[in-house]
């Protein structure tokens, strides 16, 4: 079974996938993984997936990471987290920081093992607004001057969930989805500022809100196949 892909533009970043993931994900698993390695972002419109379907699709890209905030985990489906601004009985039913979620980040960079992919499945969306924006960290690195690439090559950065929580609190008047979460006590992780892709070798910048500082010490990063 072939995978139908429509690149977003000539840059190679992002592609639209035309398929029914509910029925075809298992058969297309190696093709989906290869497409993600090549384009770094896959958009699959018009899907109607169950929780079980989501886990099946996630497994196409590696072992599903079940270490999530227990307050917003989907019962019986480890690895799935609800993100929502809906309030029921005075409490948010999903992760929400009160700051319109305007936050540049790479998911789970505060963990020692970096995730190889993150899935976002939209259940309810507003008629206007609510967009999710993506940036090509691989192109961001390649566009840097040679002197800058050489200077930052050996650098490593600390990634802290506490740092992310502090920024959220500042942006939303003291509200943060992280401060009281089950992952709040996670220790800092240190990763290279410039990461080579484990399959293609392409280098990318690893930056975002959890970044708490950097150093000039040399080191190598290793990515594992986790969601």
Q: Would you give an account of this structure?
A:
The strands form 4 sheets. Strands 1-2-3 form a 3-stranded mixed β-sheet. The protein has a 3-stranded antiparallel β-sheet with strand order 7-6-10. A two-stranded antiparallel ribbon has the order 4-5. The longest helix has 19 residues, at 21-39. The radius of gyration is 18 Å and the shape is globular. Helix content is 22%, strand content 15%. The protein has helices at 21-39, 51-58, 137-142, 146-152, 161-171; strands spanning 4-7, 15-18, 42-43, 87-88, 91-92, 156-159, 189-192, 194-196, 203-205, 211-215. By secondary structure, the protein is α+β, with helices and mostly antiparallel strands. The model is unreliable at 217-227 (pLDDT under 50).
Order of helices and strands: EEHEHEEHHEHEEEE
Radius of gyration: 18 Å
If helices are DSSP runs of H or I spanning 4 or more residues, what is the number of helices? 5
Main sheet attributes: strand count, strand direction, barrel closure: 3 strands, mixed
Tell me how many strands there are.
Answer: 10
Structural class: alpha+beta
Calculate the mean pLDDT score and round it: 85
- Estimated share of beta-strand residues: 5-15%
What descriptive keywords fit this protein?
three-stranded mixed β-sheet; 22% helix; three-stranded antiparallel β-sheet; globular; alpha+beta; 227 residues; single chain
Short structural description:
This protein is α+β, with helices and mostly antiparallel strands. The protein has helices at 21-39, 51-58, 137-142, 146-152, 161-171; strands at 4-7, 15-18, 42-43, 87-88, 91-92, 156-159, 189-192, 194-196, 203-205, 211-215. Strands 1-2-3 form a 3-stranded mixed sheet.
């Amino acid at each position: 079974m072939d995978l139908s892909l429509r690149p977003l533009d000539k840059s190679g970043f992002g592609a639209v996938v035309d398929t029914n993931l509910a029925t075809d994900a298992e058969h297309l698993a190696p093709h989906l993984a290869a497409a993600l390695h090549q384009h770094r972002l896959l958009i699959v419109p018009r899907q109607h997936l169950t929780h079980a379907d989501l886990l099946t699709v996630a497994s196409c890209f590696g072992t599903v990471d079940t270490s999530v905030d227990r307050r917003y985990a989907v019962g019986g489906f480890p690895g799935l987290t609800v993100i929502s601004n809906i309030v029921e009985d005075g409490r948010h039913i999903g992760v929400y920081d009160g700051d319109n979620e305007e936050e540049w980040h790479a998911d789970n960079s505060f963990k020692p093992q970096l995730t190889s992919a993150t899935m976002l499945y939209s259940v309810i969306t507003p008629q206007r607004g609510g967009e999710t924006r993506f940036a090509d960290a691989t192109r961001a690195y390649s566009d840097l001057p040679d002197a800058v690439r050489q200077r930052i090559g050996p650098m490593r950065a600390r990634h802290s969930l506490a740092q992310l929580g502090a920024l959220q609190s500042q942006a939303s008047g003291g509200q943060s989805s992280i401060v009281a979460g089950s992952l709040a006590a996670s220790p800092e992780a240190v990763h290279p500022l410039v990461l080579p892709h484990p399959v293609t070798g392409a280098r990318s910048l690893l930056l975002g809100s959890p970044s708490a500082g950097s150093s000039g010490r040399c080191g190598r990063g290793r990515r594992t196949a986790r969601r």
